[in-house]
Specification:
mainly alpha; single chain; DUF2336
């Protein structure tokens, strides 16, 4: 370990008198040395690097921390303390190790989720495998987007209680129903509950806006198996209105006139179908996915889409105005504005990418 001893001497000098660039160079040399010998190191030797790299990584700039995280993420015996330190950093640094590092235990992942928040949780949901303690916690604390991401991860493992909570939530969440319906590990009794939830959702969609007697007729039709015919008629009706709007939106796109200003114009005038079609085209989403983002139960979705596309708060606010349940008070709008400004654009772009991927699979 003579190379380490030499680097340690350089490190002491650099930590006292060195510049940021010099500290970054020392870190790069240490990391190079570790990676070149990691395969033959025992845990005591790795521990030396853990102490040294850990000390230095607290005194380097953001870009260098991101690079360190990217380099250590795939290493099976990476310094565990350094990996945990990186995982608790801001999301740009934390994401590579949260997604890929095998050094993070279930206990680490739960603790990080509790200490940080949704951006870190979303990164954790991308791991190739997730244990029951992690999924239980994320279901409890993660919110709707995190829950959807977990349910769509085939490598996630759920306790019976955790899966039961997902199925219960699916009663009011069509997208979650779809994600759970693709899983191979759904217990038989919960699969029956999910099927019942899907029937109830179909009945609600068909009965919306009908008088009680007609709603009862539609409900009976669901149970008799006539749902497909009724749903087809409803779809055709909805598509008629959507197609008219989509023709105009495509005309604007072809004329290079489809932009944020058009979104604001449609939304501000209450032209909901046109605004949603415009969002769908610009965000590269299907019409149902765009409608879910703008008008669905997750109020943050429209903020994430707007932020992911680099749109202004004024555009997001115009889309919020299409919702009937968001709240029109100045306090509610101000809370939304503050939340919009705290969303990191890289995080919003990853969420938008996930929405596109899930949209393409449906």
């Amino acid at each position: 370990m003579s190379s380490v001893s030499s680097l340690l001497r350089d490190l002491e000098t650099t930590m006292v008198r060195g510049s940021a660039d010099e500290r970054t160079q020392i870190l790069s040399r240490l990391t190079d040395l570790f990676l070149s010998t990691a395969a033959v190191m025992d845990e005591d030797q790795v521990g030396i690097f853990d102490v040294v790299i850990g000390r230095l990584s607290r005194a380097i700039e953001l870009r260098a921390r991101i690079e360190l995280s990217e380099r250590l993420a795939p290493v099976p015996n990476a310094p565990a303390g350094v990996v945990r330190q990186l995982a608790l950093d801001e999301i740009a640094v934390a994401r590579p190790v949260l997604v890929a590092s095998p050094r993070l235990t279930d206990q680490d992942l739960v603790a990080i989720s509790a200490a940080k928040g949704r951006d870190h949780m979303l990164a954790i949901t991308e791991r190739a495998a997730l244990g029951e303690p992690v999924t239980d916690f994320l279901i409890l604390r993660g919110g709707r987007l995190v829950t959807h991401a977990i349910a769509a991860n085939p490598g996630a493992r759920f306790s019976h209680h955790g899966m039961g909570v997902l199925v219960m939530r699916a009663n009011q969440d069509d997208a979650l129903q779809s994600a759970l319906g693709e899983r191979k590990d759904l217990p038989a009794e919960l699969a029956s509950q999910l099927m019942a939830a899907a029937k109830n959702s179909a009945r609600r969609r068909l009965s919306a806006g009908l008088d009680p007697d007609m709603a009862e007729v539609v409900g009976d039709a669901v149970e008799r198996g006539a749902l497909a015919v009724a749903a087809d008629a409803q779809i055709k009706s909805d598509l008629g209105a959507a197609n008219e709007a989509l023709v105009e939106i495509n005309r604007l796109r072809d004329a290079n006139q489809l932009d944020e200003a058009a979104i604001v114009r449609f939304a501000s005038s209450g032209a909901t179908e046109y605004a949603i079609c415009a969002v769908a085209v610009l965000a590269e989403l299907s019409l149902p996915a765009a409608e879910q983002a703008v008008l669905g139960p997750d109020r943050d979705a429209v903020l994430l889409v707007a932020r992911g596309l680099g749109w202004s708060w004024e555009t997001a606010a115009a889309l919020i105005g299409l919702r009937k349940d968001f709240g029109k008070s100045e306090a509610a709008i101000e809370r939304a504005r503050q939340h919009f400004r705290t969303i990191a654009q890289p995080t919003a772009q990853r969420v938008l990418g996930f929405l596109r991927m899930r949209d393409a699979q449906q």
